[in-house]
Amino acid sequence: MTTTTAPSTAQIARLGIVPRRKKAFLNRTWVRIALPVLVLAVIIGIVQVMSATGMLNPITFPAPFDIAAAFVDLIQRGDFWHATWITLQETLFGFAIGAGAGLLIGALTGTFKTFLVAIYPFIVAFQNTPRVALAPVFLTWFGFGMTSKVVMAAVICFFPVVINVVAGIAGVDDNAKTLFRSLGATKSQTFFRLTMPSAAAVSFAGVKTALTLALLGAIVAEFVGASEGLGVLIKELSFQLEVAMSFAVVIFLALIGLALYGLIELIEKKLITWARP
Amino acid sequence: MTLTETRPVALGEAISIQSLQKSYETATGVLPVLHDINFDIPAGQFVALVGPSGCGKSTLLKIIAGLVGYEAGSVTVGATAPREGRRDIGFMLQQSVLMPWLDVSSNIELPFVITKQAGRRSKERVSELLELVGLNDAASMNAWELSGGMQQRVALARALALDPGVMLMDEPFSALDEFKREHLNIEVAQMADDLGKTTILVTHSISEAVLMADRVIALGAHPGRVVGDIIVDLARPRRADMVSSARFQEISNEVRNALALALDLNGAAA
Predict the structure, then answer these.
(1) The predicted structure's pLDDT at residue A1
(2) Does residue B134 form part of some domain?
(3) What's B262's domain CATH number?
(4) Quick check: is B47 in a domain?
(5) What confidence score (pLDDT) does residue B190 get?
(6) Which end of chain B, N or C, is more open, meaning fewer C-beta atoms within 10 Å of its C-beta?
(7) Do A178 and B100 touch (CB under 8 A)?
(8) B58 and B184 within one domain
């Protein structure tokens, strides 16, 4: 009969066997899911207890279970889905226009020094201006319809894209540029075969931020003046003291934000395949 | 590394540098970098440029590659002046500079893509080069999956892709550990010999220069100038154990003395 035993530390050292390193506790998949869920459960539990014991006013600060019940009611309302569709359109159109323009202007600014000198100071100045302050102006210019919301979303997500594209292009390795020069690459070859892929990862970080900001821009613009959309719905529900349902809309907006972020991350993984796992 | 190059060896191109002057504009004024550089390199010779930091050896290499201009003098590679994108010059940098979005094969094929020659012939050439640098099994690997030594082999294959007559190498293995570096030095010296390329290697290391080259040109600093031109008459092919031979030590000392004398003269002038 043969018996097998685990090799001792001395045997491992002698044979040169490298024992498989255990994954750090916080890097385990189940831990990375369970830990935030636990934190959320604790917060919900605390708020629920505070509501049940009368420490929180249920009219202004509804209990989590009431918000959950309101959420179930909300998703059965037809006007809710119509408002969602409106806000989504404003967000996605605004994002497409803002991020598209940001990529183009960023590429021009990063590539041509004339653009950098002439335009970049304005971009930095606008980046540091609270752009939501423009929402009333856009309302005056473009009216209560969808256009003013799309413009707000576009403006708010334009700047992070430009800034990141310019930074990405500035970060292209000088040695790689020297190599392309030594090979006699044309300007367009250098741009498409070196600059664009080199700057892609940093640029995409800006695009991801922009998508989240586009949703913010659309909602803020709806608060300022609109006839439909989730921002309008939140405002109406708050005026009617339907605070639980207002919270439910906010939670739904968070879910939309998460879904959009997940989608853009998926696209990033498909496009930038050379990033290390 | 296996050498499978079956084409007849055609000697590379001769290089001539006469009365070369180069300076850089700095915030404090004009800084002379290279002063009255004169030397000729016959076709097929392997020359090492050795010298301390700031002696302008990398600048000199970039001038020969046509990447940097100069104020006075003349430089010819083959029959013509240097310019960017000459297909008869292969350039290898200190870093491997591999494109992470391309696999190993595509990195080696890059010069063909840039010069619009990609096709069946370039694929065949990439296969030859992969065999030449011993990376047949790594063709479809990503750049970041390779060790530092493997990355430099890919860079070497890419520099050789268009079969240039002249190879310019700027401290190509300085980032590698001593063992890998010595191993690759011997391989590159052998390869340059077999392929008949005119080769210029820039290095800080005297022993690396003597081990690989047919001739060592020593440069003094501030400004860079030729302070020694020493023929290395060690037998070929070069072997790692030659570093302990008496002749190797003699030649190394000759280079060291030339550089030390230049340092003393600089010190005295200061």
Answers:
(1) 42
(2) yes
(3) 3.40.50.300
(4) yes
(5) 84
(6) C
(7) no
(8) yes
**B221 & B128 share domain:** no
Selected for mutation to probe chain A from B87, B92, B99 (highest A CB count within 10 Å) is: B99
- B177 has pLDDT over 60: yes
Closest CA to B163 of B103, B223, B86: B86
Residues B113 and B79 both lie in one domain: no
In a shared domain, residues B83 and B115: no
Q: Is residue B3 included in any domain, yes or no?
A: no
**Domain of B121, in residue numbers:** 98-163
Judged by a CB distance cut-off of 8 A, whether residue B228 touches chain A is no
Residue B66's closest chain A neighbor by CA?
A182
* Unique residue bearing structure tokens 């439910």: A248
Chain A neighbors of B62, CB-CB under 8 A:
178
Cβ of B91 within 8 Å of Cβ of A189? The answer is: no
Which of B139, B163, B187 is the endpoint of a domain? B163
The pLDDT tens digits of the residues spanning B182-215 come to 888 888 888 888 888 899 999 989 999 999 999 9
Specify if B4 maps to a domain: no
Candidates A177, A182, A272, partner chain B, best to mutate (most B CBs within 10 A): A182
CB–CB of A56/A50 below 8 Å? yes
Do B190 and B221 form a contact (C-beta atoms < 8 A)?
no
Q: What is the pLDDT of residues B136-175, one digit of tens each?
A: 888 989 888 888 888 989 999 999 999 888 999 999 888 7
Tokens coding A127: 């980046």
Question: Do both B34 and B67 map to the same domain?
Answer: yes
pLDDT (tens digit per residue) in A83-136: 999 999 999 999 999 999 999 999 999 999 998 899 888 888 887 888 888 889
Section B29-55 average pLDDT: 91
Q: Which tokens hold the place of A92?
A: 């996605």
Reported ipTM: 0.85
What gap in Å lies between CA A98 and CA A92, rounded to an integer?
10
Strand partners of residue B92 = B169
Q: How confident is the model at residue B9, as a pLDDT? A: 43
Intervals of chain A under pLDDT 50: 1-4, 16
Looking at the fold, whether B176 and B220 belong to one and the same domain comes out as: yes
Q: Are residues B60 and B106 in the same domain?
A: no
Model pLDDT, residue B6? 36
Report pLDDT for B147: 87
Q: Is B113 on the interface with A (CB under 8 A)?
A: yes
pLDDT digits (tens, 9 = 90+) for A20-40: 566 788 888 888 889 999 999
Residue among B129, B159, B142, B65 nearest B100 (CA): B142
CA B50 to chain CA mean position, Å = 11
Report the b/e string of A61-93 with b at 16+ CB within 10 A.
ebbbebbeebbeebeeeeebeebbebbbebbbb
Please report residues of B whose CB lies closer than 8 A to that of A273. 101
What is the number of structural domains in chain B?
2
Averaged confidence pLDDT in chain A: 87
How far, rounded to the nearest angstrom, does the alpha carbon of residue A131 sit from its chain's CA centroid?
18
Give the domain-ending residue among B163, B183, B216.
B163
What domains, with CATH codes, occur in chain A? 10-56 (no CATH), 66-271 (1.10.3720.10)
